[in-house]
Amino acid sequence: MPDIEEKYGFPHCTGHRSSLAGGLFNGCKKEKAIKFHFSTALVRVNSFGPRPSITLKPRDGDEYTLEADIVLASDGIKSVTRTQMLAELGTESQEEDTGQAAYRIMLKRSEMEHDPELRELIDSDTVVRWVGERRHIIAYPVSSKQIYNLSTAHPDIHFASATNATYTTRGSKSAMLQMFEDFCPLVHRMLNLVPDGEVCEWKLRVHKPLPTWVRGSVALLGDACHPTLPHLSQGAAMAIEDGAVLAEVVSRIPADKVHDPETITKTLKVYELLRKPHCTALVDLATHSGRILHLGEGKAREERDREFRLNGKNGSVPDKWASPDVQNMIYSHDWVQEAINRYDELYASL
């Protein structure tokens, strides 16, 4: 994707998720108004308004209750907030199995540099995807090319037969190797570098579209309201955009209305109106991209492979993460500017 910077003003970069989280954390530490409470779990939402109340439980302490003007719940695919919000609306939280799971692997440079082909991979500025029937692997260097990150998508076998609700498990190296036994020797050499006992497998789940992201003075964001398959690499990106839009719309609340529940609810609904259609479209597109990547033998796969060979000359490729038309939809849109432009119109409509 050599023209990304020319088109959108910034280069395409890969990075370790801990680097992103660390950068966000360091930015927050510079803000005096932000206070962190680590190792503390949300037990329940006691009320969604007019002044929301939540109960929290420190790992090594007693429960306590906290009130706030606004609660923003980014508590993930297993969101306690979402479950209670939907219960108040008379419906249930409906997570969905996708039939897919993922191995996530990080290989060190020291493990790869002895092999010329592996060293070429970690020294590259390239994202590689190996595609097979019902399975694929995507990989790229991170951490100044000191780590090679691999993430797979493959049929969910182990979680489907499990008796508990876990989304992660220690996997079997032999099972992982068997899953990708018909992939190329280069893939086999990388997978064989994973130490025995250090294979981790994730269950990939999504959620049925929600009737609302907002109740009272409480709003959901990120995986709590739009969990997605990873095939567009947009999960964290959508959550960050949610946060940016929330910051913009909340900053529009007049000083004399910052404690007014009706104004807060309307403002949070503006956020939902701005973000929900776009996020829903990307979640659907990620699912569609996975189906296309995982096609078995037949006419549909032949057509997909023909489009791959065209390499985007018709403006689209089957791997939607790398497709120019999808990149334009994602990268060209400034959501903060959208919030600035449409806040008054959307607020007045409520």
From TrEMBL:
Residue ranges occupied by any FAD-binding domain in the UniProt entry: 34-250
InterPro entries cross-referenced by the UniProt entry: FAD-bd, FAD-dep_Monooxygenase_BioMet, FAD/NAD-bd_sf
Tree of life domain: Eukaryota
Pfam families found in the cross-reference section: FAD_binding_3
Organism: Thermothelomyces thermophilus (strain ATCC 42464 / BCRC 31852 / DSM 1799) (Sporotrichum thermophile)
Keyword annotations from UniProtKB, A to Z: FAD, Flavoprotein, Monooxygenase, Oxidoreductase
Keyword match Glycoprotein: no
Protein name: FAD-binding domain-containing protein
A molecular-function term among this protein's GO annotations: FAD binding
Coiled coil region boundaries: none
Sequence similarity: Belongs to the paxM FAD-dependent monooxygenase family.
